[in-house]
Amino acid sequence: MDILEEAYDYVKANLKDTRFIHTLGVVSVSKKLAELNGVSEDKAELAALCHDIAKNLNVEEFQKLMIQNNVELTEDEKKAPELWHCIVGPIVAKNSLNIDDEEVLSAIRWHTTGKENMTSLEKIIYIADMIEPSRKFEGVENLREEAIKDLDKGVLLGLTSSMNFLLSQGKPIDLNTVKARNYLIWNR
Q1: Cβ partners under 8 Å of residue 85, min gap 6
Q2: Which of 29, 96, 164, 181 has the fewest CB atoms within 10 Å, measured from its CB?
Q3: Number of domains composing the chain
């Protein structure tokens, strides 16, 4: 069995049905964006499959994995358990599926917040997670169109949309998201 088959089986067995359907949407969009941007479709598929690999863990499981792997959270991350799945995701992918491709692991790690100076694969997984077919929010169609035309512009709009949503909800914005957006503005 190859790694993609193993990943499909593992994710299907460990995610809720709705999360698995979302994951398949992220895979579809990621492969298309990879093809358009000269990125390995296999890497995009693997990273997309595993992007939410830790999504259904509970708080105790997150904490145990972070302690076992010497993960030190920032003060902001300690207050944002909704981000823990992307922090622990690479650990689960490595331990459960023996994935050791650092580019794939990094795309899993940064798929929620983004980060400064993202690789093309990191950008693809970030925006594919946001625009996959089951996502329904105001402006998603525009994000889809822009990401297909210009990956950087699509990611910049995605980061802006995410920040605007968090601001409208009175929620904090992860500093990595701010840095990712600033980096794209300064380096486009």
Answers
A1: 52, 54, 55, 57, 62, 112
A2: 164
A3: 1
Contact 154, 29 (CB under 8 A): no
* Separation CA 155–CA 181 (nearest Å): 8
pLDDT in tens, the chain (188 residues): 699 999 999 999 999 999 999 999 999 999 999 999 999 999 999 999 999 999 999 999 999 999 999 999 988 899 999 999 999 999 999 999 999 999 999 999 999 999 999 999 999 999 999 999 999 998 999 999 999 999 999 999 999 999 999 999 999 999 999 999 999 999 97
Place of tokens 């964006």: 33
Query: What pTM, to 2 d.p., does this model score?
Result: 0.96
Residues spanned by the domain of 70 = 3-186
* Distance, CA of 120 to chain centre: 13
